[in-house]
């Protein structure tokens, strides 16, 4: 096949470029700029080849020959570039053979060099003198470019032995992030703060680095640890059980329960014990956010259990504002508790003195988002008063069917009153939708009030009957059982009144 005014190699190069471009431009949209530049380079070389043919007889034959040789050499470089991309991105990808980008570049460069030797041989160049000269030049370049060559060889080694791959999370000295690219000279690491760190490959090869999360492992996990201090007087088993129960029961984003979290006693300090909660992170990216969530859950669970975080024992001289300041603080907290009690219909018939007595018995019980506040079927003789935050209740049918979310208006600002007043097991599982600030009222805190006025049992039983009727209606709807209609309100209220009296021993 011969086209007038073109070299004998030009038609074959043009055919190869056209076929490979037809495939590459359609499938490699991300490389279109590079493909376009290569195509422009090929067109320029093809134009030079054509000009050499058109100017035949007008210029010196030696000059035209070198113009044509350079044009044909450029055409070959473009063809080798396209064929290399087609081989690595299309053929090997279909065969599911993964080849590092640096190795593909080496093969393409080897093709360039081989094509150069072929064209020089056809041009009649003497290779003996060429090799001698190139050896000297290579030695000089190797001495003057040791650092650059170290980076190049380091990048090649990283991809050849797969010790570090794109997508891995690594830690090196004070650097931590995800590998996004491995080039000849450097490796790009995306930091957690969004900055891109460029690390020379020779530095990676000389120093130690830890692959904290391999992108090929499914699922990817990284172990984290959170330390906290507790007073020496608190039994370690109580601290460990309290924290682990909360972390394992709560729904905390980005925390894996397999392997299970661990809470360990790690050291002793001046008046305190140091504990360490170890858990597994699913996505290493938002590590600080997840650590913050874990600390919130630890703090809330310890506060609910009446366990305070401890600091080292120190003697500090402070200027106190006196009893008046402490009295004002206590008064504000007591008024806050009274306001919470005033919003609850269950205690509407109590006198001001009785409400004040209840307020003094309230216990601060915060919950973090995702915490289980009450568990269906558990027996607990207390109720919760929500001051701020939201929660939702889930009811599990007796036959073990799917759990159903109850309407939030049925939850209100207080729940668990049946457990407080009758000792019944919990009717639903309540989960904190947000961080919840709540107070807890135990049986002992209400016992003094109801013993002084036993007639309160009749008034309270009417309100409890409405709550109980809602659960009974729910059971009929979802279990499709053939329960008889509810007994009249008077009989049910009387039965509830008797159970309240029996529970408090009235």
From TrEMBL:
Keywords: Cell membrane, Membrane, Transmembrane, Transmembrane helix
Residues in coiled coil: none
GO annotation, cellular component aspect: plasma membrane
Record-stated family: Belongs to the MscS (TC 1.A.23) family.
Source organism superkingdom: Bacteria
Localization per record: Cell membrane
Transmembrane intervals: 6-25, 37-55, 67-87, 99-118
Topology in membrane: Multi-pass membrane protein
Listed CDD domains: CAP_ED
Protein name, entry field: Mechanosensitive ion channel
The keyword Membrane is annotated on this UniProt entry: yes
Domain Cyclic nucleotide-binding stretches: 346-450
Keyword Cell wall biogenesis/degradation: no
Organism expressing this protein natively: Zoogloea dura
UniProt main location, coarse: membrane
Signal peptide: none
One MF term in the entry's GO annotations: mechanosensitive monoatomic ion channel activity
């Amino acid at each position: 096949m011969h086209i007038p005014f073109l070299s004998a190699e030009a038609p074959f190069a043009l055919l190869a470029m056209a076929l490979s471009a037809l495939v590459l431009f359609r499938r490699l949209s991300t490389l279109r700029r590079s493909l376009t530049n290569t195509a422009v380079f090929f067109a320029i070389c093809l134009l030079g080849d054509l000009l050499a043919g058109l100017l035949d007889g007008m210029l010196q034959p030696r000059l035209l020959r070198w113009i044509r040789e350079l044009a044909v050499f450029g055409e070959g470089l473009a063809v080798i570039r396209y064929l290399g991309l087609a081989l690595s991105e299309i053929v090997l990808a279909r065969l599911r053979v993964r080849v590092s980008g640096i190795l593909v570049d080496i093969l393409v460069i080897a093709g360039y060099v081989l094509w150069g030797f072929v064209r020089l041989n056809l041009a009649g160049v003497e290779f003996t003198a060429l090799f001698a000269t190139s050896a000297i030049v290579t030695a000089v370049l190797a001495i003057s470019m040791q650092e650059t060559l170290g980076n190049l060889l380091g990048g090649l080694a990283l991809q050849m032995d797969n010790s570090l791959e794109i997508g891995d999370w690594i830690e090196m000295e004070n650097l931590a992030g995800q590998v996004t690219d491995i080039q000849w000279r450097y490796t790009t690491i995306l930091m957690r703060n969004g900055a891109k760190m460029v690390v020379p490959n020779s530095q990676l090869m000389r120093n130690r680095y830890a692959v904290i999360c391999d992108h090929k492992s499914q699922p990817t996990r990284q172990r984290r640890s959170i330390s906290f201090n507790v007073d020496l007087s608190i039994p370690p088993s109580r601290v460990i059980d309290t924290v682990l129960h909360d972390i394992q029961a709560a729904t905390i984003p980005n925390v894996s329960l397999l392997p299970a979290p661990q809470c360990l006693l790690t050291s002793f300090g001046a008046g305190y014990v140091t504990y360490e909660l170890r858990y597994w992170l699913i996505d290493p990216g938002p590590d600080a956010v997840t650590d913050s969530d874990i600390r919130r859950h630890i703090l809330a669970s310890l506060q609910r259990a009446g366990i305070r975080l401890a600091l080292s024992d120190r003697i500090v001289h402070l200027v106190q504002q006196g009893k008046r300041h402490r009295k004002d603080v206590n008064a504000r907290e007591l008024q806050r508790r009274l306001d919470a009690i005033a919003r609850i219909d269950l205690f509407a018939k109590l006198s001001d003195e009785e409400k004040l007595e209840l307020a003094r018995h309230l216990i601060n019980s915060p919950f973090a988002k995702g915490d289980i506040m009450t568990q269906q079927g558990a027996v607990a003789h207390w109720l919760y008063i929500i001051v701020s935050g939201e929660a939702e209740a889930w009811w599990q049918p007796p036959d073990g069917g799917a759990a159903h979310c109850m309407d939030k208006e049925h939850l209100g600002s207080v729940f668990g009153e049946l457990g407080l007043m009758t000792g019944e097991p919990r009717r639903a599982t309540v989960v904190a939708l947000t961080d919840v600030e709540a107070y807890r009222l135990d049986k002992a805190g209400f016992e003094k009030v109801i013993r002084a006025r036993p007639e309160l049992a009749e008034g309270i039983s009417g309100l409890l009957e409405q709550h109980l009727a809602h659960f009974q209606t729910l059971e009929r709807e979802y279990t499709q059982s053939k329960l008889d209609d509810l007994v009249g309100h008077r009989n049910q209220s009387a039965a509830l009144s008797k159970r309240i009296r029996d529970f408090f021993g009235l």
